[in-house]
Amino acid sequence: MFGKDFQRKYALTDQGIKNVKQGTFWTVIVNFTVMGGMGILYFMMGKFMGTLTSGDPLPNVLTCILMVLAFVILSMFTHLQQYQSTYGLVYREVKAVRISIAERLRKLPLGYFGKRDLADLTETIMGDVNRLEHVWSHCLGYLYGSYISTAVIAVMLFCYNWKLAIACLWGVPVAFALLFGSRKLAKKQAEITKKAGIQVSDGIQEALENIREIHAVNQEERFLNDLYHKIDHHEKTMLYGELSTGIFVNAASVIMRLGTATTILTGTGLILSGQIDFMMLFMFLLVITRVYAPFDQALALIAEMFMSQISAGRLQEIYETKTAEGTEHFEPAGHDIVFENVGFAYDNEQVLRGVSFTAKEGEVTALVGPSGSGKSTCARLAARLWDTDQGRITVGGVDISAVDPEVLLSDYSMVFQDVVLFDDTVMENIRLGRHGASDEEVLAAAKAANCDEFVQKLPQGYATEIGENGAKLSGGERQRISIARALLKNAPIVLLDEATASLDVENETKVQGALSRLLAGKTVLVIAHRMRTVEAADKTVVLAEGKVVEEGTPEELFRKENGIFRRMTQLQSVSAGWSI
Fold it and tell me: pLDDT-derived band of residue 578, with 50, 70 and 90 as boundaries?
C-alpha cells in the first residue's frame, strides 16, 4: 500500500512514510474506539428494549457510568495519539522537507536557476509544500485508516446479515469510483490553475521590479490592465476547477449517503418478513453513521489529494535534478586557470566552441570581445557555477569538475556585473566576503574599494541600512561595496565581470589602482567592454562568437592590423571623443 510509487506520488520522505503508517494505525484505532461507543449505546438500547418488551430489569447505573467513563478516557487517549501522528509528526516533517529543499537548491548548478522561473520556483517551495503539508496531515492517514477500518467492519457486517451489509455499504465503493474516475479532469484543471497562478505571481513580481521604468514610460495603465487580466483569468480557472470538482464530490457524498435510505428500506422489509428484529436494524443504522463519518473529511479533501500530486511532481523535479558534486579535497599546485577545448551550450544554443587559454597566477588576464561572445560565460565556468559540456577547466592542474563547488569557491573572490546586496548595514554587506572579519579589516577593504567617500555621507555611516539589494544606493556605490567584499575575502583567484562598469572615470581609476596593489600575486580574470579597463592587463584574450580569436598583451594586440582588439579600441576612442 505504501510502496515507492505511493512515496513518489506524494513526495514523501522515508520518515514521511512512517508518519503516514502511524497516522493510519491510530486512525483505525480511533474508528474502532468510536465504534465501541456505538456498542455501548447498542447495549443500553438493548437493555431498555428488553425492559419494555419483556420486563427485564434496567442495567445497573454504576455499570453504565463506568462504561461511559472508560469510553471517554479511551477516546481521549486515542484521539490524542491520532493528533500527534497526523499533525505533530507531519509538522516536524514539513520543517525537515523545507530544510532539505534548501540544501538541495544550495547544491544545484547555477544553470538550473537560469532555466527556472523564479516565481515558479518560489511557488514550489512555499505553495506546493503547504499544499502537501495539508494532505499529509489531514488526508492520507484519515483516508487509508478509514479504508482499513471500513473493510474490517464490512466483514463483520456480512457475518451478521449480508443483505443489510450490501444495503449499507454499496454507496462507498460507488462514491469513490466516481471520484477516482474524475481524477484526470481534476489533475488537468489543477495544472491549468497552477499555471494561471504562476502568471499572476510573475506579473506582480515584474511590475514591482520595474515600477520606476513603468512610471518613466507612462505605461502604468497598460501594465495594470495586463495584471488585472491575469488575476481575472486565475480567478476563473479556480472557480471552474472548484465547481467541476465540487460537483463530483457532492455527487459522491449523496450517493454514499443513499446507503442510509437503502438500509432502512431493506431492514424494514426484513423485519416485516420476520428475518431480523428491530435491534438488528438499529445496530446497522448505528454502524453506518460511523462508516460514513470518516469518509466525510476524505471526500472533502480528495480533490486536494489529486492536486497535491501535481505539487509533488514539481517538488520531485527539484530532488531529481543533478547536483554539482565533487571531492572536498582540493590542493592545487598553484592557481593557474587553464581552459582546454571548452565547449558550452545554453538552452541548446552553443555559447562557447573549443575555447583554450591560460590565466596565470600572479597575472591579470582580461577577456574582451563583442557582447554575446562568451566572456561572462567563461568566468562562470571558471568558478564552476556551470559545468562544461566539452573539454575541461583546471586550477593548478586539478579538474574543477571533480571538486565540490563550495570547496572550490573558497579560493575565489567574485564581482559580477549584476551586484547582489542584502537588506543590512554597509558593514555587514562587506563582511559577507569573509565571515568573522574584524571591523578594521572591513574598513580597510572598504577604503581600498573607494567606499569610504560615500559611506561617510550616509546617516549612520557603515551602520546604515541600505535597503533591499542596496536600494538606497546608486549603481556605482553598490558596485564598490561588492568590490570591497571581494577584496576582504582575499582569495587567490579573483573574477571581475564588468566590475567597474558603473563607476565614473575618476572612481574607476582609483579602484583600478587599488586592485592593482591589492591583487598582486593572485590569478585575476577580468571581463570588460571598455578597453581602458584592461590597459594594465598582463594578457588579453579576445573572444568572438564563442571562440578565442586573438591572444597576447594589450600592446601586441593593438599592433595587429585589422584585429578585433585594435578595432574595438579605436571605436571606443572615437565614442569617447564624441562624448566630449
Answer: very low
